[in-house]
Design a protein that fits this description.
With 792 residues, this protein is an alpha/beta fold. 51% of the residues lie in helices and 8% in strands. A hairpin with a 3-residue loop joins strand 6 and strand 7.
C-alpha cells in the first residue's frame, strides 16, 4: 500500500482529513513564504504519513529475534530495527530530514486513535486487542493478536503485583498509580552538539573494554547499538537525498537536496558547525527517541540557549540570514506538528550564572509560532529583568488564542528546585517537558507521572468513616463516625490522605524497580548526563538526578468543600454534619436549596478570598510535604506536580466521586490542576490569579498547571495587551509559578462545533496542552465551553 493509498484508507474518525483540518485563518497565508505555506498545508492534512503498523512490525520482529538477550539489549536493537526499516519520506520543500509518526494522540478525548495506538504502533505495551477501525492490514492484526499472547509487558507484570487493598482504592477513584514512564523526556542535546555520536560511541566502547563489572556490560553494549543505529539512519538519509537530487528537475531544489545529503553525512556522527547542521542533528536525536518509545512528548529543552552559538556564528559569517533561520525553525515546528503538541521548547529566562538569557533566537521562536498559528508548546521563562519587548511579544501571541505560550516564573521555579536539592546552577537551567512537568534537561530520569491523587475523594471517605459514598464499600480505615468539630473532621481527612499517599507511593516503588529491569531506555540514556559515567540506564538511577513526579489535582474542590463545612456546619451552624452527609449521599435529591447555599454562601477558591485560599494553600502544602517524605529507590525525591494530567484523569476520577460539600453533584467534572472549579470565579481575573498565587509553589518542584480563561475583548488593543502583561507580572510577583491562557470566546467555540471545516484553526488550552478545538470529543468540547463561559 502506498503512502497516499494508506492515508485514504484511514477511517474518518481517525484521519486528520484535509476538508476538516486545513482551513487557516486568513491572515496566515500572507505571513508565510511559499515553502512554509506548502509544508503547513501538508502538516495540517497529515499528508505522507508513516504506516502506523511499520513501527509495530519492527518491534515484534526484533523482540522475536532477541528473546535470549538482556532486556536493555533487546530494547536497543528494537529501536535500531525501527530506524533501519523506516520508510524514508520527505515533504516537498522540507529542509530537515527524518520523520516520526504523527497520527498518535496522547489523551482520551482527543480523536479516537488512542484506542488503537498502543497495539498498532507500540506492541511492547501489550494487552489490548486492536479495534476494528484501526488502519492496519488483517495480516498485521492476526500477527499482533498471536504475538501479544507470548509477550508479557511491564504493565501486565506490574498489574499482577498490585495488592487487593490498592486495587480497591484505585478502582474507587482515590488515586491512580502507574509509576512507569515511557513518554516524557528531554535529552542532553548539548552532548550531541559538542561531541557527536561517534565520540559518544567511542567513550562507551572505552568503558566497555575497561569494565570488570559483568552486570554493567550490557548497558554499554546497548549504547553502542544505539549510536550505530542513529549514524546508520543518517547515512540512509544521505543516500536517499542524493537519489532525490539526481532526479530533481528544479535546480535550486537540487542544490538544497545535495546540501542536506552532505549535512546528513556529517551529523549527528560529528559535531555540527552550522545552524542547519545543529538543527538536523537534534531532530535525528528526536527521531531516535521516538523509535524507543512514544513520540508524543519528546521535548527540546532550552533551544534558544544551546542553538545560539551556531546562529551567531552563521549570522556573523554571512552564511545565514534572520529570515532563513526563521524558515528553518518553521520547518522544525511543522516536523513536530500534531493536532495537539506537548513537545515543549523553552525560551527566555536566566542562564545558569543568573544573568538574562533572552536572545535573538528567543524572539525568532516566538515569531515562528506567531506566523504558523499551529499548536506549538513553548514555555516562556520570565524573571524580573526579562525585556519588556519579549514579554509583550509572548503575551501578544497568547492573545491570538493559541493556548500558548505558557509562562513560567524563574524566581519561584528555581527556588522550588533548589529546595528539592537541585544545585542552583542546574536549577536555573530548568525546562518543562510534556505538558508542564519540570526537569533539568538531559540530567534527570524524566519520570514525571508516578501517580495522580484526588484529595476530594479522601475528604469523602473521611465524612463516611472510610466508606465509598457511591458503592458503600469500606475501602479505607475507619477514622470516626462522630466528628464533633472541624478539627476532628480535618484530622480524619488528613489520615485518609496520608494512607492513600502511602499506598500510591508503594505502587510507584514497584514500578520503578520493575521498569529498571523490564523497560530500560538506552536511547535516552545515551544522551543523559551521568549514565555513560555510571554505566547504568536512566531508569536504573544512572542520571545525575533521580526525582519522580506525582500529581495532585482538584485543589479547588477539596478547598471549597472544607471551607463550606467549616463555615456553614461548624461556625455558623446553619446545617448539621449529618444533614450534609444525607444530602451528599442522595446527590442533593430534594435538597436544591441546601445545595445553592453551599454554592453561594460558602467562600470559593478563585475569588481572592483569604478564608478559602488559606485552606487551599494548607492542603497543597500538606500533600507536597507528605510525598516528599518518601525517597525513590535510586535515592531521588518525589516532586509534586499540581496537575490534572488529562481528560481521562479529571473525568475518570469525577465519575467515581459522589456529591461534594461545595455543591458539586456526583459525577460532575473536578477542577483542573491549580485552576478554579466550574462557575466559581465571581469577581474577575485579578482575584482569580490572587487565589492561584496564594499556593506555595516552592513546594512543587514537579511543576504546575494554572489556566486562566479570558475573553478576547478583555485584552484587545494596545491597552488590553498592557493589561495582560501587567496581570502576568502581578501573578508572578505574588508567587505564581506557571500560567497558561485561554483567550477565545464561547461563541466562537459554538461556531466551531457547527462548522468544523471553517474553524479548524481554533485552538484551546486543555489541562496542560493546547489542541485544535474540533479535535476534542463532544464531551470534552462541552467541558471547555462551559468553563469558557465563566471567563473574565
Amino acid at each position: 500500500m502506498t503512502v497516499h493509498e494508506f492515508s485514504k484508507a484511514l477511517p474518518r474518525s481517525i484521519t486528520i482529513c484535509e476538508t476538516r483540518y486545513v482551513t487557516p485563518p486568513p491572515e496566515v497565508e500572507s505571513e508565510l513564504n511559499p515553502r512554509i505555506r506548502n509544508l503547513r498545508q501538508l502538516a495540517l492534512s497529515f499528508a505522507n504519513e508513516l504506516d502506523p503498523a511499520e513501527r509495530g512490525s519492527a518491534v515484534m520482529d526484533s523482540y522475536d529475534e532477541t528473546r535470549a538477550e538482556p532486556m536493555i539489549i533487546r530494547r536497543a536493537k528494537a529501536a535500531a530495527k525501527i530506524l533501519q526499516t523506516q520508510t524514508l519520506m520527505l515533504d516537498e520543500g522540507q529542509l530537515i530530514a527524518g520523520r516520526v509518526q504523527r497520527l498518535i494522540p496522547a489523551h482520551y478525548g482527543i480523536h479516537s486513535g488512542q484506542e488503537w495506538k498502543s497495539p498498532v504502533g507500540y506492541p511492547e505495551g501489550g494487552g489490548r486487542q486492536i479495534p476494528k477501525d484501526a488502519p492496519v492490514s488483517e495480516a498485521y492484526r492476526k500477527r499482533w493478536e498471536e504475538w501479544h499472547k507470548s509477550y508479557v509487558s511491564v504493565w501486565q507484570k506490574l498489574n499482577r503485583l498490585v495488592p487487593e487493598e490498592e486495587r480497591l482504592a484505585m478502582n474507587a477513584g482515590v488515586y491512580h498509580s502507574g509509576g512507569i514512564d515511557w513518554v516524557h523526556r528531554n535529552s542532553r542535546f548539548q552532548m550531541l552538539l559538542e561531541m557527536g555520536i561517534e565520540e559518544i560511541k567511542r567513550r562507551a566502547g572505552e568503558k566497555l573494554r575497561s569494565l570488570d563489572d559483568v552486570d554493567r556490560k550490557p548497558f554499554y553494549q546497548a549504547v553502542i547499538i544505539v549510536c550505530d543505529a542513529i549514524m546508520d539512519y543518517a547515512g540512509r538519509w544521505a543516500e536517499k537525498l542524493d537519489e532525490m537530487a539526481d532526479i530533481e528537475d528544479d535546480a535550486a531544489r537540487r542544490v538544497e537536496l545535495k546540501e542536506m545529503a552532505s549535512i546528513c553525512r556529517k551529523v549527528p556522527r560529528y559535531p555540527p558547525e552550522t545552524f542547519h547542521e545543529a538543527m538536523q542533528s537534534i531532530w535525528f536525536a528526536q527521531v531516535a527517541n521516538w523509535a524507543e518509545a512514544s513520540g508524543s512528548a519528546h521535548s527540546f529543552g532550552r533551544f534558544d540557549q544551546y542553538m545560539l552559538t551556531f546562529y551567531e556564528a552563521d549570522m556573523e559569517s554571512g552564511r545565514l540570514t534572520e529570515e532563513k533561520a526563521l524558515e528553518l525553525i518553521q520547518c522544525l515546528w511543522l516536523k513536530c506538528y500534531s493536532t495537539f503538541d506537548f513537545r515543549h521548547l523553552t525560551v527566555g529566562g536566566v542562564k545558569p550564572d543568573g544573568t538574562d538569557g533572552t536572545n535573538e533566537l528567543s524572539y525568532l521562536c516566538l515569531e515562528a509560532t506567531e506566523r504558523l498559528r499551529t499548536p506549538r508548546d513553548i514555555a516562556v521563562r520570565i524573571h524580573k529583568v526579562t525585556p519588556e519587548t519579549f514579554l509583550r511579544k509572548a503575551a501578544a501571541i497568547a492573545r491570538m488564542g493559541l493556548g500558548r505560550p505558557d509562562f513560567w516564573n524563574d524566581q519561584v521555579t528555581v527556588e522550588a528546585l533548589t529546595k528539592a536539592s537541585i544545585p542552583s546552577e542546574d536549577a536555573r537551567d530548568y525546562s518543562p517537558i510534556g505538558c508542564v512537568e519540570l526537569t533539568i534537561a538531559g540530567k534527570c530520569n524524566s519520570r514525571t507521572m508516578g501517580h495522580s491523587i484526588n484529595l476530594a475523594k479522601c475528604l469523602e471517605l473521611a465524612l463516611n468513616n472510610g466508606r465509598d459514598q457511591i458503592t458503600g464499600k469500606q475501602i479505607a480505615s475507619q477514622t470516626g463516625e462522630t466528628l464533633n468539630s472541624y478539627e476532628e473532621l480535618h484530622a480524619a481527612y488528613r489520615r485518609q490522605a496520608e494512607y492513600f499517599i502511602r499506598l500510591a507511593i508503594k505502587q510507584n516503588m514497584r514500578a520503578y524497580v520493575l521498569q529498571a529491569s523490564d523497560f530500560p531506555m538506552p536511547v535516552l540514556s545515551t544522551l543523559t548526563e551521568g549514565c555513560l559515567e555510571s554505566g547504568r540506564d536512566v531508569m536504573d538511577g544512572g542520571a545525575t538526578y533521580n526525582p519522580s513526579g506525582v500529581n495532585l489535582f482538584g485543589v479547588a474542590d477539596v478547598a471549597n468543600s472544607l471551607a463550606a463545612i467549616r463555615k456553614l456546619v461548624f461556625e455558623e451552624k446553619v446545617i448539621s454534619l449529618d444533614e450534609l452527609r444525607n444530602a451528599l449521599k442522595s446527590n442533593f435529591q430534594g435538597q436544591e436549596q441546601l445545595r445553592q447555599m453551599l454554592i453561594h454562601r460558602a467562600p470559593k477558591y478563585g475569588n481572592g478570598d483569604e478564608y478559602v485560599d488559606r485552606i487551599a494553600a494548607e492542603e497543597t502544602a500538606f500533600y507536597c510535604d507528605e510525598v516528599a517524605k518518601y525517597p525513590t529507590p535510586e535515592g531521588g525525591r518525589h516532586h509534586t506536580l499540581i496537575f490534572g494530567v488529562s481528560p481521562g484523569a479529571v473525568y475518570g476520577f469525577a465519575k467515581k466521586l459522589g456529591a461534594s460539600a461545595d455543591g458539586r453533584k456526583a459525577g460532575d467534572p473536578l477542577a483542573m490542576s491549580a485552576c478554579t472549579a466550574h462557575g466559581t470565579e465571581r469577581i474577575g481575573a485579578t482575584a482569580t490569579v490572587k487565589s492561584a498565587a496564594s499556593l506555595d509553589y516552592t513546594k512543587a518542584p514537579g511543576g504546575i498547571s494554572f489556566i486562566l480563561d479570558l475573553h478576547p475583548t478583555a485584552v484587545a488593543g494596545d491597552a488590553g495587551l498592557s493589561k495582560l502583561v501587567s496581570l502576568l507580572r502581578t501573578y508572578f510577583e505574588d508567587g505564581g509559578m506557571e500560567i497558561g491562557l485561554n483567550i477565545v470566546s464561547d461563541e466562537e467555540l459554538r461556531k466551531a462545533q457547527k462548522n468544523p471545516e471553517r474553524y479548524s484553526h481554533v485552538m484551546v488550552r486543555v489541562f496542560g496542552f493546547s489542541t485544535q478545538f474540533i479535535s476534542l470529543s463532544p464531551e470534552l468540547q462541552e467541558y471547555v465551553i462551559e468553563k469558557t463561559k465563566q471567563m473574565c
